[in-house]
Amino acid sequence: MNRREVLKLIGAASAACSLPLAAAAEEAKPEGTMETYVYKTLPQCRIKLDVYRGLATDTPRPVVITIHGGALITGARYPIQMDLFAPLLDQGFAVVSIDYRLAPETKLPEIIKDIQEAYGWVRENGPDAFGADPARIGVQGGSAGGYLTLLTGYCVDPRPKALVSYYGYGDIIGPWYSKPDPFYSSQPAVSKEAALTAVGEGTPCGYPQGNRRHEFYLYCRQNGLWPREVVGYDPVAMPQSFKPFCPVQNVTADYPPTFLAHGDEDTDVPHELSVQMNEALRNAGVEREFITLQGAGHGFSHADKKDYQNVLDRTVAFLVKHLK
Fold it and tell me: What CA–CA distance (Å, rounded) separates 61 from 90?
């Protein structure tokens, strides 16, 4: 299946966690500005993005679009990971943090359309709005944001110049998601009734943590229902329908340079998912970097401070190399 066919399938389907971070990291706050824009207006909601700029005035600016996590079920465009982005802002980059509609009210094909339209808005409106260089755009995200980042490697046109995925995933129908999860099943069971009352209000687009939506996610993981509830297909009966939504199955030689980082004790997204993605990139001859944080959990929790800082430093160097 080629890229055009993949995009066609996503379009046909359309017709039919704020990012957790290593707690020990100190937040850096460069001087600059932040402006909010509406990039998409629907009858149900106005979907927004925030643009951060440092004081450096050189234009056109390279851009990093950052996509929040939250299992596609919760999360919002703020706050951003300033300990990562402050060095880029200081060097004249712009950072664009986007919201998108959330599942299960909105299914994955429509979420991908939001990502595509946010990317398109930055390319088309960014030059006038904040001095963006449309030829130098990278994408970054963690967890579900890392997954959506990997999707942009073949689902937006033109492709980003670089991708950064922290504890993301390239496969959404493996046993880790399509069968009851041992880690989450060891926690108090969430009933179907409780799960459904935690979601279903309107069309959420950007929903900060601290609400009950996580209960729906927990219910999905305890029962192996995430792919069915978020994508809208049964992975057992229709496994081929998921191919357009699995980055690991869509890596080609022209996939963007990719940086991966993952803790080897992640109980939410198995470390093996990044191992698999790294192997697919290697087999396709794609430029890549892959860092395993020993003893770190999801969101780089429990990571050694030096290891965590190494990830940040190497991420910045990777983005500077490919965007500046």
Answer: 12
Contacts of 24 by beta carbon, 8 Å cutoff, 6+ apart: 303, 305, 308
Global confidence as pTM: 0.90
**Alpha carbon distances (Å) from 29 to 87, 316, 324:** 10, 16, 21
Of the candidates 149, 55, 32, 26, the residue with the CA atom closest to the CA atom of residue 98:
149
The predicted structure's pLDDT at residue 30: 53
Residue 48 lies in a domain: yes
Distance CA 69, CA 217 (A): 13
What pLDDT, on a 0 to 100 scale, did the predictor assign at position 77? Answer: 96
Q: Which CATH number goes with the domain that contains 156?
A: 3.40.50.1820
Q: Is residue 230 part of a domain?
A: no
Sorted by sequence, the CB contacts under 8 Å of residue 273 that are 6+ apart come out as 168, 169, 170, 171, 174, 176, 262
Convert the pLDDT of each residue in 154-195 to its tens digit. Answer: 999 999 999 999 999 999 999 999 999 999 999 999 999 999
Decide if 190 contacts 219 (C-beta within 8 A).
yes
Cα separation of 212 and 109, whole Å? 24
Count: domains in the chain: 1
Give Cα separations from 79 to 33, 178, 296 (angstroms).
14, 30, 22
Q: What are the residue ranges in the chain where pLDDT is below 50?
A: 1, 6-7, 9-29
117 alpha-carbon distance from chain centroid:
15
